[in-house]
Design a protein that fits this description.
By secondary structure, the protein is α/β, with parallel strands linked by helices. The protein has a single domain, classed as Rossmann fold, CATH 3.40.50. The protein contains 6 helices and 7 strands; from the N terminus they run αβαβααβααββββ. Strands 3-4-2-1-7 form a 5-stranded mixed sheet. The chain has a two-stranded antiparallel ribbon with strand order 5-6. Strand 5 and strand 6 form a beta hairpin. The longest helix is centred in the first third of the chain and has 10 residues. The chain is globular, with a radius of gyration of 16 Å. The relative contact order is 0.19.
């Protein structure tokens, strides 16, 4: 299905799909410019969700951005405000939790009707070393909650998009 979607959008030649397990990402540290996920991790049964998020962020390059959206129920994720602070303490920048239950669905009540009452997005950036910042001097393109820096025409960026595949 992902392959068909990429083809219908005209981007298939620039995409490579690889099946794998979210709790065992088979990529070296610092492999991707961006990491995105939309309602995936609550489906990974028996996993420590915070450990799973840390494993995902391991493959993000310094200076790279992340946006991880899920139904972050406290019984599954614990206190996500504490986790966001833990990421800041580890050196991640611009870490925020966005209440997507109200932002995306208009109200927590509407989101709860869809069983997404604890829908939140964790966003931020993996900090670059103080000397030689990757984005210094470049213009940035703003998108909701995350900033990406264009590297110029024809630049290739690697983005990890974690998805659930059935069947």
């Amino acid at each position: 299905m992902c392959e068909k979607n990429a083809e219908s959008e005209g981007v298939a030649a620039r995409c490579r799909f690889q099946h794998g397990a979210a709790n065992k990402l088979d990529f070296p540290d610092g492999s991707f410019d961006a990491v995105v996920s939309n309602y995936v991790y609550h489906n990974v049964i028996g996993a420590d969700k915070r450990a799973l998020l840390r494993k995902t962020l391991r493959v993000l390059k310094r200076g790279g951005a992340f946006a991880l959206n899920d139904d972050m129920k406290p019984r599954m994720y614990g206190n996500m405000e504490e986790f966001a602070q833990e990421l800041r303490d580890m050196g991640y920048a611009e870490v925020r939790l966005i209440d997507t239950a109200t932002e995306a669905f208009g109200s927590r009540c509407r989101a709860a009707m869809l069983m997404l009452g604890n829908s939140r997005m964790l966003v931020g950036r993996k900090e670059t070393p103080r000397k030689n910042r990757a984005f210094k001097g470049r213009k940035t393109l703003s998108v909701p909650a995350v900033q990406f820096s264009p590297a110029g025409p024809g630049a290739l960026h690697r983005c990890l998009d974690v998805r659930v595949c059935y069947g």
